């Protein structure tokens, strides 16, 4: 590692520990030339996950986009930010577990709706209406009827 102060390439590791999220190693280093101490992080270099959109274009997976959609759907609802973050974490884990380099947006959207339906039905309907592009009231009503049926089944158990 190159020292930021003097540019020397030789340093020794003084301390190593796992970062808070467990996804990196934090190392304190000391320059062997000038004695300057600095911190470096070592991470696994992962291949980017690509999302295949409905129109066939591809873009890198961004958890922020999912979180922004959840925030919009849960606006003025009693849904905690922490719960929305957990949904995004869960979706990210599910997508990574597929072991694929490309994932269709349809699948990600279905994952979001599954988790959101369990968290808040109104937020779910809001998200579904945009995601599934409800064209008229009949589609909207069918989705509401499905929610009512699921709620009745879970209450009967």
Automatic annotation (TrEMBL):
Cofactor note text: Binds 1 zinc ion.
Residue ranges of every copy of the ATP-cone domain listed in the record: 49-139
Pfam families: ATP-cone (PF03477), Zn_ribbon_NrdR (PF22811)
PROSITE patterns: ATP_CONE
Protein name in the entry: Transcriptional repressor NrdR
This protein's UniProt keywords: ATP-binding, DNA-binding, Metal-binding, Nucleotide-binding, Repressor, Transcription, Transcription regulation, Zinc, Zinc-finger
Function: Negatively regulates transcription of bacterial ribonucleotide reductase nrd genes and operons by binding to NrdR-boxes.
InterPro entries (alphabetical): ATP-cone_dom, NrdR-like_N, RNR_NrdR-like
Zinc fingers (unnamed), renumbered ranges: 3-34
Originating organism: Pilibacter termitis
Cofactor dependence: Zn(2+)
Molecular functions (GO terms): ATP binding; DNA binding; zinc ion binding
Keyword match Cell division: no
Family according to the record: Belongs to the NrdR family.
GO BP: any one term: negative regulation of DNA-templated transcription
């Amino acid at each position: 590692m190159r020292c930021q102060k003097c540019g020397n390439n030789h340093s020794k590791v003084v301390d190593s520990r796992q970062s808070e999220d467990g996804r990196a190693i934090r190392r304190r280093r000391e320059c062997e030339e000038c004695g300057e101490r600095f911190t470096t992080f070592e991470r696994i270099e992962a291949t980017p996950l690509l999302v295949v959109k409905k129109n066939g274009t591809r873009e890198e997976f961004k958890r922020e986009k999912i979180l922004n959609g959840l925030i919009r759907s849960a606006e003025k609802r009693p849904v905690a930010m922490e719960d929305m973050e957990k949904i995004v974490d869960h979706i990210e884990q599910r997508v990574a577990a597929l072991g694929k380099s490309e994932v269709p947006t349809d699948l990600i959207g279905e994952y979001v709706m599954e988790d959101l339906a369990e968290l808040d039905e109104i937020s779910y309907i809001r998200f579904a209406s945009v995601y599934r592009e409800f064209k008229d009231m009949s589609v909207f009503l069918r989705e509401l009827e499905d929610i009512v049926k699921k709620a009745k089944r879970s209450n009967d158990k």
